[in-house]
């Protein structure tokens, strides 16, 4: 249902608003929830802002344009400042993907209820579709339990590992593992499959709501 967007020059232009907003909201949500939990580190470092320039990593930005997945500058937090350290860190970790989840749902809702209007405008259709795809991509990608992604931070917070060598090894080679998974096609299959599953859930829910209101 969610096909890969062709990376053509015009499509890159259509993708840019979604990439900028998705990355900005993802990192802002991390910073905002951390600040509310008692840590002012993001504010001191200038990350408690919706200014995209404070959040976008140039290499990660180019990667998502060219190959469909990438990353922003990670928000640094000090867990010792949290009111409830472990619980609050889980909230902070999930805040970014929650922001992308909400953006993807809003874009899907617009797409679902404005079908014919969007079809008549290639630009509007492509931009809204990009908002769905890019946000679902960031959501699913960041949930991978590999460093330096949010999924890894969540895993190591929820699970107590007896053998810390495993953690250190993953931290050392995590990025290389991600690249390898991308090369062999596993990463793309995971992102596409998980994204389609979430999108189907959105559409099922919207169909239910449409049925209720007649």
Rg, Cα atoms, Å: 18 Å
| Strand percent estimate | under 5%
Spans of at least 5 consecutive residues with low confidence: 1-6
Q: Biggest sheet: strands, sense, closure?
A: none
Return the average pLDDT rounded to an integer. 90
Q: How many structural domains does the protein architecture include?
A: 1
Helix tally equals 9
How many extended strands? 0
N→C terminal distance: 25 Å
Summarize the amount of helix as a percent range: over 70%
Oligomer: single chain
H/E element sequence: HHHHHHHHH
Classify the secondary structure makeup into a structural class: mainly alpha
Can you tell me the overall shape? Answer: globular
Quick rundown:
The chain is built from 9 helices and no strands.
Could you explain how this protein is built, in words?
- By secondary structure, this protein is an all-alpha fold.
- The chain has one domain.
- Helix content is 72%, strand content 0%.
- It has nine helices and no strands.
- The chain has helices at residues 9-36, 41-44, 58-67, 85-113, 115-119, 122-142, 150-158, 164-183, 186-213.
- α1 packs across α6, α4 runs antiparallel to α6 and α4 packs across α7 (150-158).
- The chain is globular.
- It starts with 8 loop residues before the first helix and ends with a helix.
- 33% of the residues are buried.
């Amino acid at each position: 249902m969610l096909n890969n967007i062709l990376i053509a020059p015009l499509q890159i232009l259509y993708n840019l608003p979604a990439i900028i907003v998705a990355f900005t909201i993802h990192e802002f949500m991390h910073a905002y929830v951390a600040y509310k939990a008692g840590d002012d580190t993001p504010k001191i470092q200038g990350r408690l802002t919706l200014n995209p320039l404070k959040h976008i990593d140039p290499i990660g930005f180019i990667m998502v344009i060219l190959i469909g997945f990438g990353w922003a500058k990670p928000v640094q937090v000090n867990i010792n400042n949290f009111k409830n350290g472990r619980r609050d860190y889980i909230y902070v970790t999930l805040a970014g993907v929650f922001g992308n989840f909400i953006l993807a749902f809003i874009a899907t809702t617009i797409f679902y209820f404005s079908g014919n209007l969007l079809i008549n405008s290639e630009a509007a259709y492509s931009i809204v579709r990009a908002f769905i795809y890019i946000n679902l991509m960031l959501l699913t990608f960041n949930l991978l339990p590999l460093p330096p992604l949010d999924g890894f931070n969540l895993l190591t917070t929820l699970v107590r590992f007896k053998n810390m060598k495993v953690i250190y090894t993953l931290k050392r080679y995590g990025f290389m593992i991600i690249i390898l998974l991308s090369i062999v096609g596993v990463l793309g299959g995971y992102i596409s499959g998980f994204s389609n599953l979430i999108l189907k859930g959105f559409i099922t829910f919207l169909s239910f709501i449409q049925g209720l209101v007649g």
